[in-house]
Write a structure and sequence with these properties.
This is NmrA-like domain-containing protein. It holds the Pfam family NmrA. Keywords: NADP, Oxidoreductase. With 306 residues, the protein is of the alpha/beta class. Helices cover 42% and strands 17% of the residues. The protein contains 14 helices and 13 strands. The strands form 4 sheets. The chain has a 5-stranded parallel sheet with strand order 3-2-1-4-5, with helices on both faces. The chain has a 3-stranded parallel sheet with strand order 6-10-13. A 3-stranded mixed sheet has the order 7-9-11. β1, α1 and β2 form a beta-alpha-beta unit. α1 packs across α8, α3 crosses α4 and α9 crosses α14. It is globular, with a radius of gyration of 19 Å. Bound molecules: NADP nicotinamide-adenine-dinucleotide phosphate (NAP). NADP nicotinamide-adenine-dinucleotide phosphate (NAP) binds next to α1 and β7. The site of NADP nicotinamide-adenine-dinucleotide phosphate has 24 residues, from α1 and β7.
Length: 306
């Protein structure tokens, strides 16, 4: 059997990373290497990937030197980064090393929703990294995705979220809830990404992977149908969001910025993602019309069993 090209998935034990690594292993077009911090070697997602054939490499990206990173990346054809959002700056050294050792395609950690510069701090950071990748001259693919169904659905009990504040915040309905936004099942982020990184058409392109578009009014219907028919919904305005943003920090601030982009400005749609000022995305659904999209209704039934 001919040797498969190698893909390294940084953050491969994480939510996005394991979705991608699993799909890559399933499709068998790459040998998959996953660097994980020594403290994560026995994490269930790491154990699962190892069992499925991933090569797990103990590696602490944050504490690593350029030489250690170079040793790790040498020989890789494709490098995919799906690291935690607080460590995105670590990607600058990844890009330098990837260029030095001749990586053919670098996929930075985007996997967020579509949007312009200047609305979300986290998105701006990611756009800075995209600029750095482009300037480096290495091959790349930038992948954004719809907002995960796992975060779009409104919580009807506390067990449905690991962030206590999200129990109520998930039921804030902005300006009547008629703006549509693109969503995707987290598992389909990996399915799309595995196709995208093996596809010559997506080299040096920006791709938007999405499942469907949905409004908050539709999300309320799912919450009432499958969760709790009497669940309380909180109507909110743009001014409310501004004051939340002023008082929020860490993950809640990131979430508020996403809410602003998606539900107030309506930035996160396939139509917008394709615009030049949003990066001129290729539509993953058009590239892979055979890909079976998981419907949000199916996931809602699963989600509201919790
Ligand atoms: N579209 C959406 O709806 C959506 C939703 C959420 C996130 N995202 C985006 O998806 C991307 C990946 O996020 P994620 O939520 O999938 O990541 P994650 O699961 O939180 O973290 C990924 C990996 O980073 C490592 N890590 C975690 N905390 C760390 C720390 N403090 N220091 C160093 N490494 C640490 C862990 O790897 P090891 O321990 O194995 O080393 C972890 O498995 C981000 O760009 C994020 O913005 C998009």
């Amino acid at each position: 059997m001919a040797t498969l090209p190698t893909a390294i998935v940084f953050g491969g034990s994480g939510l996005t990373g394991s979705s991608i690594a699993n799909a890559l292993l399933e499709r068998k077009e790459f040998q998959v290497k996953v660097p994980v911090r020594p403290s994560s070697l026995d994490k269930p997602s790491t154990v699962d990937l190892r069992q499925k054939g991933a090569i797990i490499i103990p590696f602490d990206l944050v504490g690593s030197t350029a030489n250690e990173l170079q040793e790790l990346i040498t020989g890789a054809d494709t490098v995919i980064s799906a690291i935690v959002w607080e460590q995105l700056h670590q990607q600058y050294k990844m890009v330098d090393v990837a260029k030095k050792v001749g990586v053919k395609r670098f996929v930075p950690c985007d996997f967020g929703t579509a949007g312009r510069r200047g609305v979300r701090k986290l998105h701006d950071l990611k756009l800075d990294i995209r600029d750095y990748v482009k300037a480096s001259g290495i091959g790349y693919t930038f992948i954004d995705a719809g907002f995960w169904y796992q975060l779009l659905l409104m919580c009807t009990n506390e067990k449905q979220t690991s962030y206590p504040w999200l129990y109520e915040d998930s039921r804030y309905v902005w300006n009547g809830g008629l703006v549509k936004t693109a969503g995707i099942d987290l598992r389909d982020v990996g399915q799309f990404s595995a196709r995208i990184v093996a596809d010559p058409r997506t080299l040096n392109q920006y791709v938007f992977a999405w499942g469907l578009e949905v409004t908050q009014q539709e999300l309320v219907k799912y919450a009432r149908k499958y969760g709790d028919p009497n669940v309380e919904i909180f109507p909110k305005s743009t001014d409310d969001l501004r004051s939340f943003i002023a008082g929020a920090e860490d993950m809640r601030l990131v979430y508020c910025h996403y809410q602003h982009s998606m539900w107030i400005l309506g930035e996160n749609t396939i139509e917008k993602a394709k615009l030049p000022e949003f990066g001129g995305a290729l539509d993953a659904r058009e590239l892979y019309p055979d890909m079976k999209i998981r419907p949000i209704g199916d996931y809602a039934r699963e989600f509201y069993k919790k």
